[in-house]
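User: Run a structure prediction on this.
Assistant: Running it now.
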Amino acid sequence: MEFILTDSIKTDLAKVDIEFEKSLRPWWEELRPFLPAPGEEPGYDLLPAMVINAYRWAGNGHRLTIQMANLIRIINLANLIHLRVKDVEEGQEHNQEMQFAILIGDYIYGRVLKLLGETEADKLLDQFAVMIARINEGMVMKYKLDSGLDEYLSRGRAPFYANAFSSAARMQDWDPPHVALYEAVGQNLGLALEMIYVYKQPDMGYRYLRQAESGYQRLVQSGFIRNTALHNIIQAIWDDEEVVGSGV
């Protein structure tokens, strides 16, 4: 995914890492065991990279872009912690370590809302609260209702990408129809990337990619946006030789 994790994006991700550690003090040392090892969570860097892109493409400033990528990475960590607890708790009694994991995950969610209130993006508080609720609903679908991959991603991962793009547009005071369209582009593009590169399901991923491309073309046709970088990423996925021969 070199077309996503460019040198420029990697530079900004390093800045996000610094903000990430600062934001989670004084619990950083306790949280370190919960951080994914390199390569353990293929989508771990993909998500903040797409947040950075979403904010850049919408015309937001660099400082806000880093702050928002950091906040969404923090929410993703809380989600990963809760998912890991669910993975190991079947048939086991809650021990002290598991109880701490649940509490620290809940603490992180609250920490995000506090940090959001301290930024220039405090008008997004309601939107982030709804996103967290939708993510938790996705976890319920996965573990209690035994949903399939497509259903889980639509409920558990889509809110991350949808929120990244819609919040980026709202911070630029776009009108509601264009916010909704940009949100749909981001959600479909994010799900396409996860399906193709994280879960290795190109057939399903290309369905989302077609929807992302269609939404982008509607933005272009309306005369509202013509973003070469966004179009280039969509095209790069279509042209990627690693998946182009998969029969799609």
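The chain has a mean pLDDT of 87.
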